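Ligand: zinc ion. Inputs:
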Amino acid sequence: MKGAVLYGPRDIRFEERDAPRIVEPTDAILRLSATCICGSDLWPYRGISPVAEPTPMGHEYCGIVEEVGKAVKSIRPGQFVIGSFATSDNTCPHCRYGYQSSCVHREFMSGAQAPVLRVPHADGTLVATPELPPAEMIPGLLAVSDVLGTGWFAAVAADVQPGKTAVVVGDGAVGLLGVLAARQLGAQRVIAMSRHPARQQLAREFGATDIVTERGDAGVARIKELTKGVGADSVLECVGTQESMMQAIHATRPGGSVGYVGVPHGVELNGEELFYTHVRLHGGPAPVRRFLPDLIDLVWSGKMNPGKVFDLTLPLDQVAEGYRAMDERRAIKTLLRP
Ligand SMILES: [Zn+2]
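Predicted complex:
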């Protein structure tokens, strides 16, 4: 089997790897229908989060179950399944509170940019669709695995409510699907912060009512202007830099909420400054498993199509070009077909 392996900065190779097999009785082996490249894969790709050794890449996946371990009860060979980037037993206290990405048995998935994938804790991690999906639905179902699930958690963590105003900081794939999530959760006004015309267009298709092109303090000033000086009820932070985090906190009204899902890189908060903002902060690695059944249903019933976020589709053996296109911001998100 050949899969994507990262050796160092901008050195991604498509090379021979051992095919995964059942290791634990709770495992499943999937033949992937589609996989993709995550914005978070760009941190190690760019050398900002260095890899210590050659690392199999990829953590977003959907496909058909080929084999299950002896202890797997609910997942069966032949089913089409979607799982989260974080495995979970879905039974421990953290899982029962809806924080499956903090499961006591959590493992972060890797190696999904490949034709075959081993998923630990199959019963608690995977959710099956009602039947095999039509080919055109696969991008939408793949998006549920991480990028939509993460945008959705940003909106839930930011306490998006019907009739209220939400701001989305970040016009990457997660931010764009954060726009979709905020609209689906009933926000009346969704302000997307983007200076990139193609991304502004997609944000509008996903339901953005306003676009703000300014950044930093100027961006905050523009949000204040658009909200009669008050600030937004909910802000989704989908980048993970110091500037984006401060932009999110300062764009939120006193008593409002920031949902932050951008993996922080060098973000430091000043306690005293935070104290006087009166802002709620909630975030972390998205507990996608909590949302999987509902999000699969919304895609299955045609109520939303998050698959539009993939603006480049390549065969898996061209994975290196997929990374380059996202690194150079020529593509929002690359779908890979094994
Ligand atoms: Zn658990």
